[in-house]
Design brief:
Rossmann fold; alpha/beta; eight-stranded parallel beta sheet; three-stranded antiparallel beta sheet; single chain; 254 residues
């Protein structure tokens, strides 16, 4: 596990964008897992810039998103379909047939989840999985208590997650209470993990993730067990850490 603490959100996002761009340059047919939320937005803006100004080619890349709300149609402005197309896919040369995002309106969600797992396997597995982290330590929508061996499935969201997500909805009563999410076991099968976190609101979750025991009550702690996990956080997200020099924190390059 490699941890980088970077001064600001902007510089953290630039560092993450470098890693994603390097993956695509090295393997143009990469399979990349994408996350949503506020933290990766700047990362995606920088990837668009890299595509526009330096020709970063996504035409052969295959994508898989971590999760989607149950009950929101793809065109709903709070769906993760909408998020990904608005914030990244509409602005790069990705092939729409190579884009995979869980379908929250699926008639048979269990069948869809099994199909999603099959598609990841058929693509050869995920080369690089981008991750965020919830303030309660959730990874994707694997809430505290989720099985560390879980696969793609429907999950009930905790009251805290629903409350945190309410800020994105005009009517808090419309916040979905269920989501389709990749499981912890699915995430851990990616060749490389890239987890980004920003702000003091995530500081305790980052402390638990990096310095606490591996436990289903903080699902993000599982990244400790991945052979190639790369954690990039800004200084605000690092404020609760106790042992900066004892768990492999690397200072950013000059």
């Amino acid at each position: 596990m490699l941890v980088e603490v970077i001064d600001t959100y902007e510089l953290m996002s630039q560092r993450a964008a470098e890693i994603v761009a390097e993956q695509v340059h090295r393997k143009p047919t990469s399979v990349i897992g994408f996350a949503t939320g506020s933290t990766p937005k700047r990362l995606y803006e920088l990837l668009i810039q890299e595509h526009d100004e330096r020709g970063l080619d996504f035409s052969k890349v295959t994508t898989f998103n971590l999760d989607e709300y149950v009950g929101l149609p793809p065109k709903h402005d709070q769906s993760y379909h909408y998020y990904m197309w608005e914030n990244l896919f509409n602005h790069i040369d990705v092939n729409p047939s190579n884009v995979h995002i869980p379908h929250g309106m699926a008639d048979d969600i269990d069948h869809f989840c099994a199909w999603y797992e099959e598609q990841i396997e058929a693509a050869g597995g995920i080369d690089l999985q981008i991750l965020g982290i919830g303030a309660n330590g959730h990874l994707a929508f694997n809430e505290p208590g989720s099985s560390l061996g879980s696969r793609t499935r429907i999950k009930t969201l905790t009251e805290k997650t629903v409350k945190d997500n309410a800020r994105f909805f005009d009517d808090p009563d419309m916040v979905p209470e269920y989501a389709i999410t990749m499981g912890i076991g699915t995430i851990m099968e990616a060749d490389r993990l890239l987890l980004v976190a920003s702000g003091e609101r995530k500081a305790q979750a980052i402390r638990n993730t990096l310095e606490g025991p591996v436990t289903a009550m903080c699902p993000a702690t599982i990244v400790q067990l991945h052979q190639h996990s790369h954690i990039i956080i800004d200084k605000d997200a690092a404020t609760a850490l106790d042992y900066r020099h004892h768990h492999g924190i690397a200072e950013p390059k000059e």
